[in-house]
Amino acid sequence: MAALKLDPGSGQAWSSAAIVAIKLGADAQAVEFAEKGWQLDSSDPVLAANLAVAYHYAGRMKDRDRMYKQAQRMKYESLDTLDKIFRGEITLRA
After folding, report:
1. How far apart are CA 67 and CA 73, in angstroms?
2. How far apart are CA 49 and CA 15, in angstroms?
3. Which pLDDT value is given to residue 4?
C-alpha cells in the first residue's frame, strides 16, 4: 500500500492495492480500491479487469459481469484468466 502514499493519483496503484486486498481477504476494501483506480483511469483494460475481479470476490456478480464486458470491449488480453477465476479454477487468495 506504500504505492498509494507515493502516488495517490495513480489508477494503477489503486488497482494493484485492490489485488493485494483480495489476497488478504479484505473484499470490501478491494472494491473500494478498484473503484478508485477505475475512477482515476478508465482507459486501462487491466483496471477494468481488476475491478471485475474485486466485484467477483465481493459477490457482486452483476457488477462483475458489467466490468468483464468492459474489459472485453477494451481488448483485455487475459480474459481466459478472468474466466478461470470466475469458475473457481484459480484463486487470488493467499
Report:
1. 10
2. 10
3. 65
- Other CB atoms closer than 10 Å to residue 27's CB: what's the count? 18
pTM score: 0.93
| AA letter at 83 | D
Q: With beta carbons less than 8 A apart as the criterion, state whether 64 and 52 touch.
A: yes
Segment holding 65, helix H or strand E: helix 61-73
CA distances 75 to 2, 37, 44, Å, are: 30, 18, 10
Q: Whole-angstrom Cα distance, residue 33 to residue 12?
A: 10
Radius of gyration of the chain (CA): 12
